[in-house]
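Need tokens for this chain, all 103 residues.
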Amino acid sequence: MIPARESEGGISFFVKVQPRAKRNAFLGELGDAVKLALTAPAIEGRANDACIAFLAEFLKVPRSSITIASGQSSRRKRIRVAGMTAPEFRARLAAQLDKGAHN
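Here are the structure tokens for all 103 residues:
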């Protein structure tokens, strides 16, 4: 399971982004990160914006609750989500990964 670190007021976790994919999707776990496919290209911050939008929709939190704490110009990013606990995150992620395994 992906490690999600709890800190005051939220959690942080790592994602590995694959830009210019055919569709936005969770691709599973890659080491200690969640692997995401995003249709947006990795230019002018478009993949970062798409990453935030995708995670906000999935986690059912406002976009303003999600920030890229590090890795703005890298495929590996540390994501910070305000107002979420690690157990909530793990439950939603597990459900999504299980769903993806059955599709």
